[in-house]
């Protein structure tokens, strides 16, 4: 490839330029500039600068019968939009996803405002130039003054848009995450909409994992009452301030919430975890808070 390879494994893949409908088996090679899918019949080279979207587990309908555990890339070359689908065994797809996003976004300069909000309150934080550092399960923002690490399992919400950052409308992601029981919001402004879309997709894939875990949790009315009370109290409160009733019943409810990682305890106070906050905001929106 002429440059250092950061990923190299055997997989099955299909690209739009193949003269066949079935996938082939070959080598998947990733450098910091390009992705190469090589097989006996030739190879497909995808410049990383052309990649506009990435998804995991979603396959185009005409190829769904051929694939199971996959990663799909959308890319544009010569104004033509193309799709490449890659499948591999073991944990290769999961590891490749992390390496690919890290290669696409890591080290790029961004504009950051942190924390832009604390508990919903707008702060006077200044905008700083920073670099993104991605690793499995975390997003690190490095400035001259230090760094901020966002544990992606604590992200409760994010949205994309054009925000006024440093006196100019810029493609920006607003990320809300939990830190020591408090919701903090970080604004990250990317150089262009392509990179904004890629970072948004990375967060979406991590957020999807949390939502899949939450979907398997059954929440009783008593548990819901505790979660909503904590949410209304700002995410943290003493037990006596939010719960009344039979002690044995209350302890059973709390134990179940702790077991499902929806609340945590800090001394005499109870706190909503990131997962608990998502349950409140995403699954019980019909509750009058």
UniProtKB/TrEMBL annotation:
Organism listed in the record: Natronocalculus amylovorans
Name recorded for this polypeptide: Taxis protein CheF
Keyword DNA repair: no
Subunit description: Interacts with chemotaxis (Che) proteins as well as flagella accessory (Fla) proteins.
InterPro entries the record matches: CheF1/F2 (IPR007381)
Record-annotated membrane-spanning stretches: none
GO biological process: one example: chemotaxis
Chain's role: Involved in taxis signal transduction.
A Pfam family assignment: CheF-arch
Keywords: Chemotaxis
